[in-house]
Specification:
5 strands; Tyrosyl-Transfer RNA Synthetase; three-stranded parallel beta sheet; single chain; 2 domains; two-stranded parallel sheet; mainly alpha
Length: 352
């Protein structure tokens, strides 16, 4: 156990990570990994909610995400990377936490409702699909973090977690319902009330210029994309502008990319001024600069990722060590929860 403040976050394995993941959360994880006690979960069981018949792909993507983490700068010597399915305490906590949340509260979660709509699930989704929103609360609270680096769209999920932590502390630990969030542990609560740590860019739009960047919407730039593929994708960004002499909207998607990826503030300001005035600055030129800036960011990531290509053994060893550390902490949390909730239990040990 570490004396550093703890954070927990992670990803569902649905394919390679993209720039939206980087600016929304992973960049922040890299910044925090030496100053905080970091736990990063590969939520592979959550992937089964919509890809039940594609379990081999989920396994492949779980390993692939670890490669992406390593490429982006996550250091397993400073952060714990682990698999959700290998932490039995999470499943046990999910069942208990489901008792603390009314069903209609879970279904009002705006992120859940958006996913049902975007993925076209209609009424065909399994019971496990809304249950994963409860499972996310267990993913987080099993590690009792003070903060959760997330993208803007995941904040409603975290609010559900905060509600569960408050309710457990109130029912089983005697914390007053009017207590301030930051005082819960001091007053005897089993869980801190974790705060959202949203990246500088809470929501990066995809190259379609409409939706959030997403693999399923085919509008993403992946961190594993070759340089030419990045250039090709950036060229597809739609702005609706007709000519280089037409005043442009610097609040469009293209200029979100300018502000996000071009490092020099003076150059960003110059591009914004010329573009807004229609001072002979075409979309094509701006896109070339954006693509160059993105490739400058991605090149060291590509190099680091190449070291782990075809080396599943190295990735699995990192996961195995991470799961051992994660279980040590999660089992401590579960024992504390069972004691507070008056569940009969005995000490148990998980070996790796």
């Amino acid at each position: 156990m570490s004396d550093k403040p703890r954070i927990l976050t992670g990803d569902t394995p649905t394919g390679s990570l993209h720039l939206g993941h980087w600016v929304g959360s992973v960049k922040r994880r890299v910044e925090l990994q030496r100053s905080h006690d970091c736990y990063f979960i590969i939520a592979n069981m959550h992937a089964y909610t919509t890809r039940l018949a594609k379990s081999a792909e989920i396994k492949r993507d779980s390993i692939g995400i670890v490669r992406d983490y390593l490429a982006m700068g996550i250091d397993p010597e400073h952060a714990t990377i682990f698999l959700q399915s290998e932490i039995p305490a999470i499943a046990e906590l999910t069942f208990l936490f489901a008792m603390l949340l009314p069903f209609n509260r879970v279904m009002r979660n705006p992120t859940l409702k958006t996913e049902i709509e975007v993925k076209g699930l209609g009424e065909t989704y399994s019971f496990g699909f809304p249950l994963y929103a409860v499972g996310q609360t267990a993913d987080i609270l099993a590690f009792r973090p003070v903060g959760v680096p997330v993208g803007e769209d995941q904040v409603p999920h975290l609010e559900l977690t905060r509600e569960v932590a408050r309710r457990f502390n109130q029912i089983f630990c005697g914390v007053d319902e009017h207590a301030e969030d930051e005082d819960h542990v001091k007053l005897g609560g089993a869980f801190p009330i974790p705060r959202a740590d949203v990246g500088a860019v809470g929501r990066l739009a995809g190259i379609d210029g409409v939706n959030k960047m997403s693999k399923s919407l085919n509008n993403a730039i992946f961190i594993s994309d070759p340089a030419k593929e990045v250039e090709k994708k950036v060229k597809k960004i739609f702005t609706g502008r007709q000519s280089a002499t037409e005043p442009g909207d610097i609040h469009n998607v293209l200029f979100q990319y300018v502000r996000t990826f071009i490092k020099d503030p003076a150059r960003v300001a110059e591009l914004e001024e010329r573009y807004s005035k229609g001072a002979d600055l075409g979309d094509g030129h701006v896109k070339l600069e954006v693509a160059a800036a993105i490739n400058e960011l991605l090149e060291p990531m590509r190099e680091r990722r190449a070291k782990y290509e075809g080396r599943d053994d190295l990735v699995l060893e990192i996961l195995r060590a991470g799961c051992a550390r994660a279980n040590a902490l999660a089992e401590t949390t579960l024992a504390r929860v069972k004691e507070r909730a008056n569940l009969v239990s005995w000490p148990r040990t998980l070996s790796y």
